[in-house]
Design a protein that fits this description.
about 100 residues; mainly alpha; 3 helices
Length: about 100
Amino acid sequence: LDTLLAESVASLSVAGVINLDELVQDGVRVRASAGSGSYRREKKLYKELRKAERLIERLKRERDDDPDASNRRIRSAQERAAREREARVRGSQERCVRRFL
């Protein structure tokens, strides 16, 4: 399963869907739009595969060292998403109020 996960993450990175330099989970779904040519760059794919494998190993070590780290990361992402949503809603409200003044 680790190999399959690493291959999938590397493919997403090569396709430009994710960036392995900073990977976080926030629960937001994003539509992928990768052309078939993006999977033909074998050297880059293997480079990203190695990065994905290192990331998976780091996350597994983190899980073993601090089992609650993932939960904190998820909570942090949820809080950030809520703040961003609140900011968008407030901005929309302000624009609506300005239109009627």
